[in-house]
Amino acid sequence: MSGHKVDILAFGAHPDDVECAVGGTILKHTAMGKTVAIVDLTAGELGSYGTPQTRKVEAQAAATLLGVSFREQLGLPDGGVVNSEAQRMIVIAAIRKYQPDIVLANAVHDRHPDHAASAQLVADACFLSGLQKIHTMGDNSLAQQAWRPKAVYHYIQDYLIEPDFVIDITEEMDAKMQAILAFTSQFVEPNDKQPGSILGLLNQIKSTNSIFGRPINVAYAEGFTATRYIGVQNLYDLQ
Mean pLDDT across the chain, nearest whole number? Predict the structure, then answer.
């Protein structure tokens, strides 16, 4: 068994993708005692504000606030995430390193092209990671064991996609916003940016979570899509 074994592995194309989309869900599950790792595919080096170095420091601060056990960046090119064999092998190695039961991945359709590309890249890598004849090496230069997560769920980001299920994050909402604000370079209004633009983005996140919460009669929820049937033991699990 891997020394990095976690229950949930959350992939993001860029640092802060995970916080903005599923920070509440991660907070809920770390509070339940579940172990979580975050893997940022890129360093966000094409972002208009901040640097890869500052964003990495901010990402670690946010991970601490979320109670995450591990966080790393894979070094894929920002703006150049593609579902290629070379990039799949890098992602497969990360999946085998953390051996998650559940994987969370970017939105299947979204404003930033890296998001949809990451969604398909991670989903395909999760399947291929279970094939014995695909060989990868771990950080210790030893061959990794094949590993296939039980489920892959795609979180919802900028575009308002109809979710297959939502998770109540009402109690976690304030802490989620604090984790987002750990990315100071991204969420503190710079002088050369249109006033209110950052506040507008934060309000959009809260509004989206409010929209997802309304149908289940809670204040805030995060939404997910799935590409397979979602199985439950009984009808009461669907409440």
Answer: 94
